[in-house]
Amino acid sequence: MTSAITHAEIAPPLAAALPARQGAAWRVLPALYLLRPYAATSRITDGRRSLVVVEQAGRVEVFVDRYDDFPIGLTPDAVADAGSPDVVATLAAAVLRTVLPAIDDESAARTAHRHGSLQALTRKGGDLAEIGYALLSHSVYPSVGTRLDGPHLAWAVGCRDWGVLSLGPSGTFTVTYEGPVSGLYGFLAHVLPPYDGPALPGVSSAFTWHLTGRFPQLLTVKGNEVEFRPHSGPHGFVMLPSEDDPTDQVDDTTRVAAQIGGLGADLLITAAAHLI
Q1: What is the Cα–Cα distance from 62 to 60, expressed in whole angstroms?
Q2: Stated pTM of the model
């Protein structure tokens, strides 16, 4: 039966674009069933998580394969135009930003329910170790600590201070940052979704203009703070460290504080080069 299902051509490059976890790279396997009639369909898996990739009528859809939840008729978890020149990068970014973190949150909730929060936090320690190794590959040497809400990493590169916090037994992490605003640019570009919305309304200060002009995905909260626009995936804010800091004297050296949550380990592994 499965041999009659045509493989999705985008499945191998999409699998190659996702990071290996615990030494296991993503593999392409035959689909076990069709989600769309006559559509090219493949299953990709890293042994712990599986996705179904469907190509049909110029559209590529990605579904989470939950094994016990047959997803026919459900809305896909990620979609892209098959004719786009950067379709693989677009899909991989969506999978890293929203799809895999959602799977990891579900898995962490099951672990906490069946074995307790401590076991879920222990698993997060293993994920943090993989993030730490990714940082080491860029000559960054984080310190490891434990708080009441779970394990964490911290490191400094020059005048830039970074951290990755567990903040409880969920499947995702929170990045903290304090340093010049320019040090955040690469990371924000990696984690923010594309923005195709309307023109921005007037912003309230030079500080918010400095950030929303570069990243229209950010939303002005007040003169000294911007936050991620409401959407699924990462969420957080960037602000001046003090209410007393001037908002009209801003350049790339202006110091900011940021906190960005809802980040999956896979996304942070691929973002390691921007966490320096």
Answers
A1: 7
A2: 0.92
